[in-house]
Design a protein that fits this description.
81 residues; rod-shaped; mainly beta; single chain
């Protein structure tokens, strides 16, 4: 909106991750779950010793609970004079 050559008002709307705004299952950023493997010890019977890991199959392979997975709306009102 412009009142004169010296004054103007503008409104900016920015939407980030529009897919997630349309459908909560879309636009998810999947971050690998690094705690699926747990170091439980060392096999000292071999040379060099080998690490022993336990795999937790009940854990999800990735997480979508992060800020990047949510949609964001940014509003800006600007007055120029």
């Amino acid at each position: 909106m412009r009142w004169s050559d010296d004054h103007a008002l503008s409104l900016d709307v920015e939407i980030f991750n529009v897919l997630n705004l349309l459908n909560p299952r879309w636009g998810l950023v999947r971050i690998p779950n690094t705690v699926a493997l747990q170091h439980v010890g060392q096999n000292l019977a071999v040379t060099p010793s080998e690490p022993i890991f336990r795999f937790d199959a009940a854990r999800r392979p990735y997480s979508t609970d992060n800020v990047e997975s949510a949609y964001q709306i940014q509003l800006a009102l600007r007055y120029r004079f």
